[in-house]
Amino acid sequence: LIRGIGLAESVSDLGNVIVANQNGTPVFVRNVAQVAVGPEVRRGAVTMNGKGEAVTGIVLKRIYENTSKVIESVKAKVTDINKTLPAGVKVVPYYDQSELVERAVGTVKEALLEGAVLIVVILFLFLGNVRSALIVTAMLPLSLLLAFMLMQYTGLSANLMSLGGLAIAIGMMVDGGVVMVENVYRHLSEAEHPTTSHGGEDDALARSRFTGEHAVADVSIPGSTPVTDEQGSSAAERVEPGYREPKAHLILRSAREVGRPIVFAISVIILVFLPLFTLQGVEGKMFHPMA
User: Fold this and answer.
1) How far is 66 from 77, CA to CA, in rounded Å?
2) pTM, 2 dp
């Protein structure tokens, strides 16, 4: 074995390598062997489907490149190469990683779709209101559409980890939507079917209504001066019996009641995923898309 690091530049240089010394006379490689360029030493054999030997080659993609796009380009080049090869010789792929990627992504897509369908069914069963269930259901495609738009903008591909993260996020998105819609639905139901009370202060409280930014109640306190506005009309005069709060005000008030807790709960969940962005190396490459 002759090892020369950048010293042998041609076949003749290899032939001039001294391998022995006989009585002061150097013995060169060319004296004991024939030096020529020959085939590479065979280290094994490859067969394909038991139909004889074949020659194999491996295509490696660069880091951060999209596997599916690279394989698609390779297949196009292989088609062009096969047109120039002699009869009986052709390039045939025996391992295609795009099939593995598509199968894995397909599995996640199926899980994503099944989860969405189950969520819709459960919403219809437990909310008991078609309109409320449809509102929460509409959040799913809109949220996923926004997520895919942001993924495209940031250059993040729809791989196994990113789709898995979306599958996890579906449950969190629905949780907030269910709480919000259920609270609005409850207030609307109470407004349409108010509880009737009888007599005195209970009846006055039952006629309390919400107008704009102020709660106006038809309540009389013995010994006190009635509250009047600039025109001199009291609260009891301004609020007519049977007055109903506008639906827009009612929905806004219902959303405000649970809006802050929902934002706080989602913020806590987001904080849990932030440490994943600090991961480096292989772990970072794996879990960054999911985060």
Assistant:
1) 17
2) 0.48
